[in-house]
Amino acid sequence: MLFNLTPERLIANLIALLIGMTIHEFAHNYVGWRMGDPVPAREGRLTLNPFVHINWVGWLMFAIIGFGILGGAPISPYRMPAQNRRWRWLAAVAAGPVSNLLLAILFAIVYRLFQSTILSSQLLSILIFSLVYWNILLFFFNLLPMFPIDGWHIVYSLLPPDLAIQWERHQQTTQYIFFGLLLLSFLNIPGLPNIFGLLIGQPSSALLTFLLG
To answer: In whole angstroms, what is the distance from residue 157 CA to residue 6 CA?
Structure first.
């Protein structure tokens, strides 16, 4: 990605990721607050101000090389009411990736409605494409069932209590697997399949084609 990155694409990537991750973290915080966790409101996280949510170094890394720590949400199931806590936590965790999917659909609709106008401007067409593409990518990336990604917490919430305990015991193992797969994807060793490409790239391309035509 670094080698074919034009100034226009870099700008579009930065804008798309800024919007995608701000909405992603806001969704976590807002739904977490609605589910009973008081900390997002106490820390001023119920805002669409990107300065509150974004890790700026990670934001630049993600735009340039395709990976970076973009932000975080101070939500916890243990601060939510005990009643239906499992489902409250699921709603708060799933809110982030779902918000990215909804953003991708929204910008795809904008593209289809104003396609001729958008295609008449190279910068605008690159920006709309980036907004759809990156939000799809963030959606699938955050569904990976590996700690500390949202997908790990989604699986944890969906499992019955006895299996959830076992899943939690292997939390660190899934984190090692995640970083191992990440390293392999950057090394690009001949003969070894790109697991992230299979898990994220292929479904992202399929959904992108479906949305944009």
So the answer is: 41
User: What is the Cα gyration radius of the chain?
Assistant: 18
Written in H, E and C, the secondary structure of 151-191 is HHHHHHHHCCHHHHHHHHHCHHHHHHHHHHHHHHHHHCCCC
- On the CB side of 126, CA atoms within 13 Å amount to 14
Q: In this predicted model, what pLDDT tens digit does every residue of 48-91 receive, in sequence order? A: 999 999 888 877 777 777 666 777 899 999 999 999 999 999 99
At residue 2 the predicted structure's pLDDT band, cuts being 50, 70 and 90, is very low
Report the 10 Å Cβ neighbour count for 132: 24
Residue 54 forms beta bridges with which residues? 71
Alpha-carbon torsion 56, 57, 61, 62, what sign? negative
C-alpha span between 74 and 29 (Å, rounded)? 7
Contact (CB, 8 A) for 194 and 184: yes
User: What is residue 113's predicted lDDT score, i.e. its pLDDT?
Assistant: 96
Query: CA-CA distances (angstroms) from residue 7 to 11, 116, 163?
Result: 6, 23, 48
**Token digits of residue 17:** 């990721």
